[in-house]
Each structure stands twice: as C-alpha cells, then as structure tokens.
Amino acid sequence: MSPIAQADAPELPWIAEGDALPGADTAWGPTAPAPGLLAASGDLSAARLIEAYSQGIFPWFSEGQPVLWWSPDPRMVLITREFRLHRSLRKSLHRWTLTPGFELCFDRDFSQVIQKCAASARAGQKGTWIVPEMVEAYEELHQHGFAHSSEVWHQGQLVAGLYFVNLGLAVFGESMFTTINDGSKMALANLVSVCLQEGVHAIDCQQNTRHLASLGAREMPRSRFLSGVQKALDGQAIPWGSQTLNWPALQSLEGFQ
To answer: Rounded to whole angstroms, how far apart are CA atoms 141 and 173?
Structure first.
C-alpha cells in the first residue's frame, strides 16, 4: 500500500485511543486517492478490532504508517452457497484426504498460520501488510476467541492455511498461504464447509481479486454487506477447534458432481 499523501486527498480523521471509529459510510468515495479509506489511529487493540469488524471496518497499513482503517464500497464477498468447488479442487481434496498424515482442522496453531501468511510472497507486492503490530493484535484477538485459522497439515507439518475473524455468525477472511498445490483453496473449502454447516451466509473477502472471483466471490454494495453483518452478529459462536471438513455440506453445493 502506498502512503496517503496527496494534496487533494479529503481530510482523514485521526481517532484517539478511546474514541469511537466513524461510521463506514463516511469512508472516502470512488474519486478519492484511496477509495474506502476511513480513518487513522495509533490503536490496534483487540477491543478496537472487535469494534471495527462489527461495523464492517478493517485495518490495512504498511510499516511506518499509522493504523489505517478501511471500509470499501463495493465490498468483495463470498456467499457460501456460491463457492465454486472446481473439479480440480475436488480431486485434490479427495486425493489428499486419502493420504496418510493429512489433516484439515482449525485453531491448532493460529500463531504459525499468521506468521506464515506474513512471510508469504505476494505477486506485485513488496513486503507485507501483515506487519509485527498486526500479528500481535490478531494473536491477542485469537486469545479472546474472535480470530481463528483453517489449517492444512501433512505429516505433522503445517503446509497451508488461512486466518479469519468471527463475530457471531459473521466471518471475515483475512489472508492465506500455501506450500502445496491447492493448499490454500483446501483451507478455504474447509472453512466454507463449516460455514455451510453452521448457517454462515457469507464470508467477507474485503477487496476484489481475480483469485477470489474464480472461487465464487463477488462485489456487493457496502450497505447490503453491512446489513448482513448486523444480522449475523447475533448468531451463536461456532466451536472452531472441534471442526473439520464437512464433505456433505460441500456436496450440497450447486454444480457438485
């Protein structure tokens, strides 16, 4: 992410510790230098993250920048029933689940997942937005029971995974990594299968990428996204640590053969 320093940029609110974040609908619009940018602060506590996610706001910043808060419009969202379980991914899941020592699980080693996500190279990016301050904050959020990881293990080694935030039945995807072919997709399929089982309607993907679109994610107006988040917040917490891949849920998807 590039620093926001254009002279023609709108005024960006600075949020002091203890002050509330502004509403998502006050984020910079499509003609601004950074559409979706909402505010800046120096605070990245677990309480601040819970406040932000419950309002459809998330942090995204680079080393040397203050904490920058975002709420883009439109929002990239994966409706769980629209997940595209491509034939190649089904074959990978079938092959790997028959492989000795292969496991799909949640929350076995959240810290290792986020560290590997931070260390993963991204096409077209220099460095990572998952800076040490971000890692520390989400590890604290995990300790409070609101950040989780979908994990892929083989022979006792973590080979792929993703981490996400969960408030009630609202699920917000963050980042993923893999060291094997289709590994991160299998981690996502694992997450989607449990979401289908537990009645999670959508997974927030934040911003549009070709990769996410290929798996069924699509853009929706921020107002509709926020309405869905508010309804989902009242849902019962999901016991992620005891979950694993739910094949029947994936088989219920349209187009599964």
So the answer is: 14
What is the DSSP secondary-structure string of 209-237? -HHHHHTT-EEE-HHHHHHHHHHHTTSPP
Rounded to an integer, the average pLDDT of 30-50 is 96
Q: Are 70 and 77 in contact (CB under 8 A)?
A: no
pLDDT at 218 over 80: yes
* Amino acid 204: pLDDT: 98
Instruction: Determine contact, residues 60/70, Cβ cutoff 8 Å.
Output: yes
Please give the full DSSP string across 133-149, using - where no structure is assigned.
Answer: HHHHHHHHHHHTT-EEE
pLDDT for 44 equals: 95
Strand 170-178 and strand 157-167: pairing? Answer: antiparallel
Q: Look-up: residue for tokens 């739910």?
A: 246
Residue 90: strand, helix, or coil: helix
What pLDDT is attached to residue 126? 52
Task: Compute the average pLDDT of residues 213-217.
Answer: 95
